[in-house]
């Protein structure tokens, strides 16, 4: 399993906001992008989604900025990843067919749909209907998510002072 850069940057942004010397003060996207040497435009989309999901608060205006909306102990990493990761298609047979009845749920269980058949020809891998490998991958993915769900943002920032040295020096 590999997470996208999008998820990585979302996690890094939350870490940045959580370890700020004064977490209640507002930060801005440029500060985060500069600290991690990542694209401001890409980060803007991520921050927007984190705001829509309620993880961060945005304040507009001249003195505006962003800050965490919850305490780090209340931000579950597994829940976050299920909400922002675009898919968990480890293998072709986990992909959707794209019709509206087959859309993946977000944040409710694992967002996986097995490929169905269209007419008499299977879509994707020809052995999908009989393949037992997809069950192994499903179990592995479930375990991956279960491990992430055991941790919160607070767990990954318990070395705040060390993180601050890298981000704010």
TrEMBL record:
Pfam entry (one): Rrf2
Matching InterPro entries: TR_Rrf2-type_CS, Tscrpt_reg_Rrf2, WH-like_DNA-bd_sf, WH_DNA-bd_sf
UniProt superkingdom: Bacteria
UniProt KW DNA-binding keyword: yes
Keywords: DNA-binding
Protein name: Rrf2 family transcriptional regulator
Organism, as annotated: Psychrobacter saeujeotis
